[in-house]
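Workshop exercise sheet. Pairs work together: one partner reads the sequence aloud, the other fills in the structure field after running the prediction. Swap roles for the next sheet.
Pair: D.N. / O.F.
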Amino acid sequence: MIVKQDQIENEGLSYAPCRYGDSRMLFRGPRKRLDRPYLTFMGSTATYGKFIKKPFAMIVEDAMRQPCVNFGFVNGGIDVFLGDGEVMEICQNADMTVVQIMGAHTLSNRFYSVHPRRNDRFLGASTVLQAIYHDIDFSDCTFTRHMLGKLHTASLDRFDTVVAELRAAWSARMRTLLGNLGENVILLWMSDTPMSDQHWSKHPGQLQADPLFVTRAMVEELRPHVRDIVEYTPSPEALAEGVKGMFYPPSQRQAAIEMLGAACHREAAQLLIHVLREKLYVL
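Structure field:
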């Protein structure tokens, strides 16, 4: 699934794009005031709330009566936030930061590099990866999932080496991110399937799974560095609502179908509200 960051307006829905300070990144608005206590939300497409009029961060804001800064970035990964000092500083000063767990495929690693902001974009293979996959032509690869699909098709044994590298890079980068954010962080697993240590290929979507290649064990290793881990998977009732309440042009209906819908955002928000009230009360 590919969602373009520059598609920021849909009929019936405005994302009010805005910037904070010296950041080069456009985030979902309206822009929030930072001169009173606030919460921050960091993540990818789900946090941004593509096609969603009231994403979970906005629902939390209404319930908590506290500004919630939405730092969701469409198709973003860990690297896009580590590379933005302005965003990191704003999050450091928040009462709490909720970090959506993002996939392990959207970060630069020993095998390949991604675009510094469009983290789903594949920039190039390292000499190490080219040596392992000497039979692959990388010149037609634009997106990381497409490139990984080619590697998987070429060799299952070699692909396991790639997955191991992506997981190691993800774990190291997440520890760096959490170390920079400080102690007041909640991790959010927001996916149509529960956290699991099953082999990634057991997921119905395989390489379309999200967050890709991230296991329960990987997330649990981060528990000492955060205030809590919230795991959200949609109820059957929320999934049954499909695209109800979503706003999208006809050309992007399939992309909308593949996303968690408005009902899922409402459910995720209720989980977060409960945990945030508990954690902020004891600060």
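Discussion prompt: Confidence is low (pLDDT under 50) at residues 1-9. What would you look at next?
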